[in-house]
Design goal:
The chain is an all-alpha fold. 66% of the residues lie in helices and 0% in strands.
Length: 102
Amino acid sequence: MAEERITTTETGGRSPDTTHTTVIQERAPDNRSGSGWLIGIVLLIAVVAGIFIFSQMGGAEAAKDNAIADAASDVGDAAGQIGEAAGDVGQAAKDAADNVSE
């Protein structure tokens, strides 16, 4: 709401010493609806949510890396078992050849 102030000063009658002063002062209305606070709170929530999401993505990345390492270990174990089986087959072939030769 605008505030209007009028000040009138008169001295004497219609002589040259007569003064008439009018002052009009207008102020902007006090619109304190809280929109600034609302925007600040929304931005704060967005920042906290972003931090939470990025921290969760880091955990998923570590889990993926662990799964890849476990799979590589399993492949290595399987290769070792294949090597042992090949050795056993070779020994069995040697034993069979030795038995045929006798």
